[in-house]
Amino acid sequence: MGLTPAFSKRLLTFIQDAMPLRLKEVHFVKEPTLFNVVWNMFKPFIREKLKKRIFFHGKKMSSLHQYLAPTHLPSDYGGELPAIDYSGADWFPVLDELTPHIKNWNSFGFVKNP
Known about the structure:
One of its GO terms (molecular function) is phosphatidylinositol bisphosphate binding. The protein has a single domain (5-85), classed as CATH 3.40.525.10. Helix content is 45%, strand content 8%. It has helices at residues 5-18, 33-42, 48-51, 61-64, 88-106; strands at 26-29, 54-58. The chain is globular, with a radius of gyration of 18 Å.
């Protein structure tokens, strides 16, 4: 719901044209059904090279295991490592500590004229 079309387009532009790293593969797992609708809306804006590097696995972890060995994955993804705790109680305080740094980073750039 938070991904507006304008933001999504900006994100795609960043990923394809400005991100300072190279994506070799992008794997989606356990994606909700609604994701397919969103994917089909943005698929035309994704370059063919990136499309070939995007993989959807749904709930089929055996499909993911063709790319990533279970020895390197947590049990949440059919792997052999301990399960991951995704609770916000652990990561929110870290993000909260970083807020001043993020505000500082966002202050760089061009000044917008009113």
